[in-house]
Amino acid sequence: MSQIRRYTIIFTLISMISDAAVIFGSMLLAFWVSFYPPLIWIFPVSKGIPPLSEYLEAFPAILVVFLIVFKAFHLYKRKTYFSSTWHFFTFTQAITVALFSLMALTFLYREDFTYSRRLLAWGWVLTIILITLSRRLIDRLEINTWRKNKEPRRILLLGMGEIAQRLIRNFSDNPRWGGDVVGVLQFNGGQLSPDFNDLPVSGMVDDFEDLIRANPIDEVIITRLDLPHQRIMEIILICEKSLIEVKLVPDVLSIMTSQVEVVNLDGIPLLGLRALPLYSVWNRFVKRNLDLLGAAVGLVIGLPILLICAVAIKITSRGPIFYRQERIGENGEKIIICKLRTMPVDAEDKTGPVLPTCDDPRATPLGRFLRQFSLDELPQLWNVIKGDMSLVGPRPERPIFVEQFKEYIPRYMSRHLVKSGLTGWAQVNGLRGDTSIKMRIKYDMYYLENWSLFFDIKIILLTLFSRKVHQISHRILPLE
User: Fold this and answer.
1) Final residue of a domain: which of 275, 306, 321?
2) Which of 229, 256, 275 is the last residue of a domain?
3) Below-50 pLDDT ranges, the chain
4) 361 with 343: CB under 8 angstroms?
5) Which of 195, 342, 427, 441 has the fewest Cβ atoms nearer than 10 Å?
């Protein structure tokens, strides 16, 4: 996991915890200010002081509403700038919407539940003030953490000129961008500009492939688009194979489509592919909770089945019950998955690594049965609980095949931008075993670009009842 993503997750969680504490503290403080001295002497209560216990009982619902509204206002989305004005006005809008939503929900909560208008007013004011201050403190903490512990992404710029100079200056001045420019490549021949002599990596765009191999690069920014279109596409594909992020500085903003996003850096628009839904910390949090819940339930239900399968494997063939294998997971990192053994121990001694097929002759009779009903995958629920895998996602592949596929299948490595899954959109559409790898990538990328919680639940249900629903699922993304 990159440092930017790690810090984003950490400080998003800190912000959520801080917001919850501030909302709770503001409610208590508003209750005290409303019904206890000295203001109670000035504004006496005619109907008596309501019990604090009623507000404490309702706090979980209050907190959920606030967090949902804050999420809708993008208050947990990573930002690369600080603005007290933006914080104040955005939180004022969000808190106002949250309070009006809570007022509406009181009609559904309990018929005899009432709320104090003075407490509501004080709560509104105090929450805005305290949450703005707390977020500013968290922002300061984050930027100081970046300055002390920054492990910057190594950025290579393609193209020299004013934009390149501004990018270098802004990456240097703002540590939250999490990047350092390590080199600039020049277009169209000529002498290298003396303005970039201090950078360790320099040269011509023609040397791009050699420089990428010789220097660790995390991101490439193409600052000019006067390279031939074919060359730009070659550069993007080269970067994709090495999991190097690519951004472009557009010369015409009208070229934007729904598949791209623009990041503004001091007036310089950086154009890149649209962020995947699972880049969102909130979405990853929701998906992780679904994984933990589903895997825990699956292990409890599947434990008797696992025990029966384990005994059957031990009785019918020589060797261990479980089979561990190295696969490539999120961000190209190696993971060890565990499966029930379905082949003899020496199955690959003669053939070497081979792709599995639907009717693999090497499988034992029991192994073919286990594969037919995917029972051999049950131990991978433990990989899900450990965090190596997800319930739903692209299926992980062995390193030797990843090295082969990434050379000739466009966007193959993009499927490693998220956690691998026990099942996936490709698998529930019948793309398993010796089916087309290119078609699987098509389905995997469709899943990554259109992820939602309900999509995950649908795929899980399709996996459990796949034989009955393949024809239905094909209507959404037809095979070609």
Assistant:
1) 275
2) 275
3) 41, 190, 252-258, 467-480
4) no
5) 195
